[in-house]
Specification:
The chain is an alpha/beta fold. Helix content is 41%, strand content 22%. The chain has one domain: Carbamate kinase. The strands form 2 sheets. Strands 1, 2, 5, 6, 7, 8, 9, 10, 11, 12 and 13 form an 11-stranded mixed sheet that branches. Strands 3-4 form a two-stranded antiparallel sheet. A hairpin with a 2-residue loop joins strand 3 and strand 4.
Length: 292
């Protein structure tokens, strides 16, 4: 009897997911992969499985990643101190070499290999490939070789998606202006938002180490499950959206204003958070919509 109940539960889960699979089939989803889910082995395996499953049911999935902890570790190995200004990594020439080596090399190819190993079909890319992400150096020299994205060329992404690949994109951009042809360090959340807008994605998902937007940061039960684009500025003024949540919400706002229908901030510390967000009524974290 217990086995029958167990099987019935599994069937109900699949049936429950069916309308969501139908809704997103053939649509583009951009996922920003970061935080603890990139470090914890169990969480990492769950994310890889989620992304492969999404691709298998016909969802065009783009995975954009950062790699701050890995960069910090490599800088420490060479005896260089990590330095941040307003949450952005100060990037001098030597640091840029490390960022490019770690993000475009080790981290990007490790994620690509994990997807391949788990039965998926992935291709590792960075913003320099095909000049996908074109950026100019921030006008404030205090940040060093940190760029603002000026343009996104989606041709290489559409080619990869059309061929059935999961593009895995690291946030190093192709420099313009005084840095013509040189690498620039760009924020991965911003890169994901701009890629989502350029692809006219159905949804942007930012995986973080927080639940989402809380009405009271000290009360985990005060999670705001949904918010319209028109509410976000009001929540900022009230101080509900504050500190580190501001840039993440700004990325979601950019995506929504750029034509993306939905943007979610989810807790990547929970196994299979992506599947919960994509294929359940309840979802997880905070979902923002373009609907006024």
């Amino acid at each position: 009897m217990s086995e029958t109940i167990n099987y019935q539960g599994r069937v109900e889960l699949l049936v429950h997911a069916l309308p969501y699979i139908q809704r997103y089939q053939g649509k583009t989803i951009v996922v920003k992969y970061g935080g603890n889910a990139m470090i914890n082995g169990v969480l990492k395996a769950a994310v890889i499985q989620d992304v492969i499953l999404m691709a298998c049911v016909g969802i065009r999935t783009v995975l954009v990643h950062g790699g701050g902890p890995e960069i910090d570790e490599m800088l420490k190995k060479i005896g260089k101190e990590s330095r941040f200004i307003d949450g952005l990594r100060y990037t001098d020439g030597e640091t840029m070499e490390v960022v490019q080596m770690v993000l475009c090399g080790k981290v990007n190819k490790d994620i690509t290999a994990l997807i391949q190993q788990a039965g998926g079909k992935a291709i590792g890319l960075c913003g320099i490939d095909g000049a996908m992400l074109k950026a100019v150096r921030k006008s404030d020299d205090d940040f060093g070789l940190v760029g603002d994205i000026e343009d996104v060329d989606i041709s290489i992404l559409n080619s990869a998606l059309g061929a059935g690949f999961i593009p895995v994109v690291s946030s190093v951009a192709y420099g313009l202006g005084i840095d013509n042809g040189k690498p620039l360090n760009v924020n991965a959340d911003i890169a994901a938002a701009q890629i989502a807008a350029a692809l006219s994605a159905e949804k942007l998902v930012l995986m973080t180490d927080v639940q989402g937007i809380l009405r009271n940061v000290d009360d985990p039960n005060s999670l705001i499950k949904t918010a319209a684009r028109s509410e976000l500025e009001h929540l900022k003024k009230k101080g509900v959206i504050s500190k580190g949540m501001i840039p993440k919400v700004d990325c979601c706002t950019f995506a929504l204003d750029g034509g993306v229908k939905k943007a979610s901030i989810i807790d990547g510390r929970l196994p299979h958070a992506l599947l919960i967000e994509m294929f359940t009524d309840e979802g997880i974290g905070t979902m923002m919509t373009s609907v006024v």
